[in-house]
Amino acid sequence: MNIIHRASIVAAVSLLLHTTTVVAETADEYIELGIGLGRQGHVQEAIDSFSRAIMLDPENAGAYYNRGLAKSLGGDARQALADYTRAIDLDPKLLGAYNNRGFARAALGDFRGAVADISKAIALDPAIPEFYNNRGTARSALGDYKGAIADYSRSIQLSPQLAGAYNNRGLAKSLSGDHRGAISDFSLALERDQGYDAAWYNRGNARANSGDLKGALEDYNKALILNTGLVEAYNNRACTKAALGDYQGAIDDMNRLLQIRPENAEAYYNRGLARKQLGDAGGAIEDMQKAASLGDTLSIQALRALGK
Predict the structure, then answer these.
(1) Which domains does the chain have, with CATH numbers?
(2) Under DSSP, is residue 125 helix (H, G, I), strand (E, B) or coil?
(3) What's this model's pTM, rounded to 2 decimal places?
(4) CB-side exposure of 210: number of CA atoms within 13 Å?
(5) Positive or negative, the Cα torsion across 103, 104, 107, 109?
(6) How many Å apart are CA 152 and CA 173, to the nearest integer?
(7) Short-list 283, 222, 220, CA closest to 253
(8) 174-190 tens-digit pLDDT
(9) What is the pLDDT of residues 138-173, one digit of tens each?
């Protein structure tokens, strides 16, 4: 059962202001206008406004920083990185730009670069808990679970109510094999936020890995009440139900999963196994053939063994 990493690196520091200027003439007014547009969800218009600010004042670090933030929100991590770099060139003490450039690097798969950038932000201000949380996420992606746990612990020390840091520390503990420690951390996250669907899901995984299948089932149920689109929870709840002997329940969950992701090969394979357990050999073969057509190697092997 795979643990999903729902803890993304957050753009914790922003230069965003609280006012919106309708008509802009100066660079600062275009920055304010862009901020207002971004907050309303008009990402491209915000980018255009920041670009106008840059045309009027090419040395304005805040304009590059905010345009980078807008580009990042629009999914263009590469261009965001370039803007954050220019902002840093203009203002080397702009700690939010280091943090957010780390976010962009992580989005591009450069987790070592992300650690380096966020470490610079921490050096500029070691009292911001989100920075440690973010660096922990990047370290965890590199497999440095010990370093990640230390960062999450520092984040929690600075902000004991930060539910995400407990969840993330739980993920790092779980990935390092400490499932009981992970369960404790996910529980602490849930004490702070009962609506945290990822923490319920992640605790379910840790409980399943520690052998507490009934507890895992309860957690998956809660996660799916909060978020019916959490596809991985359907898959893992189905596996848990099958392990408990509830093959029809497992099939029902796979059916729900396939409604969301009709090309999920693993779901067809798992549904085929459950159907086989219920004596539906024809349905099992049909599911495995579909899974095999989608490239599932286990299904291909199973069908070969059956001469299909």
Answers:
(1) 1-125 (1.25.40.10), 126-210 (1.25.40.10), 228-308 (1.25.40.10)
(2) coil
(3) 0.85
(4) 22
(5) negative
(6) 11
(7) 220
(8) 999 999 999 999 999 99
(9) 999 999 999 999 999 999 999 999 999 999 999 999
